[in-house]
Design goal:
Structural class: mainly alpha
Number of helices: 5
Strand content: under 5%
Mean pLDDT: 83
Distance between the termini: 153 Å
Helix content: 55-70%
Number of strands: 0
Order of helices and strands: HHHHH
Low-confidence stretches: 212-220
Radius of gyration: 39 Å
Shape: rod-shaped
Largest sheet: none
């Protein structure tokens, strides 16, 4: 009788997964692959930068086109306003019913007709700010545009302050009311000159002030 215990079977050799096999690394291939990846990233960044620059330049071009068109329209509106104001001043001074009359608020003088309210828009400028087109312009160009619209805004505020708080709120001689209207016209003419750097010299002749306005004999 055999008393020897049966021997345990030898364990099967551990299987190696194919994807864990280590293979020799070719340093040349590795460098080429890294270079290709880096080159691809740089190329993508370059293309993206070029596209962004093109979009910014297109936005700046559109903004400048709109701003110039807006200023041309504003200058045309100033032309009409200046002609109207000079006409109002002349008619007030020449009206027979205004002669030898005591001071009164300007709107009570015959032929006053109002100072008008010229509509000077800044929608294109505000849009350029909102869309950041202005921030992509050269500094001097953006500064020039900001100064022009700033002057336009100040001119409008000054107009309404003088009109509301001085000419209408208190009595004045006829001569002062007419002179104020002529000054409004002159200020609007000067405002139009501020547009010249962006839209060029005005080729339309401006209305001239009355050469010899009638002198009122209004009592003071």
């Amino acid at each position: 009788m055999n008393d020897e215990a049966p021997k345990a079977a030898d364990p099967e050799p551990r299987r190696r997964l194919r994807w864990l096999r280590r293979e020799a690394i070719n340093l040349g291939d590795f460098v080429v692959q890294i270079f290709a990846v880096v080159l691809g990233i740089l190329l993508a960044l370059f293309i993206n930068n070029r596209v962004t620059q093109h979009q910014q330049q297109s936005a700046v071009h559109d903004a400048m086109h709109s701003i110039r068109a807006e200023l041309v329209a504003n200058r045309a509106a100033l032309h009409k306003s200046v002609a109207y104001l000079y006409q109002r001043a002349a008619r007030m001074l020449e009206a027979p019913s205004n002669q030898n009359q005591p001071p009164r608020p300007c709107y009570l003088w015959d032929q006053w007709g109002g100072t008008g309210a010229v509509n000077l828009t800044d929608a294109a400028y505000q849009t350029a700010i909102t869309t950041q087109a202005l921030s992509h312009m050269p500094f001097k160009q953006a500064q020039q545009i900001a100064q022009i619209y700033g002057r336009q805004r100040i001119a409008r505020k000054s107009f309404w302050l003088i009109r509301t708080n001085i000419l209408i709120a208190a009595p004045h001689p006829l001569s002062l009311c007419a002179a104020a209207i002529r000054n409004f016209a002159a200020n609007e003419r000067n405002l139009a000159d501020a547009y010249v750097p962006l839209i060029g010299t005005d080729k339309v002749e401006w209305p001239a002030p009355p050469s010899h306005p009638t002198k009122s004999k209004t009592s003071k």
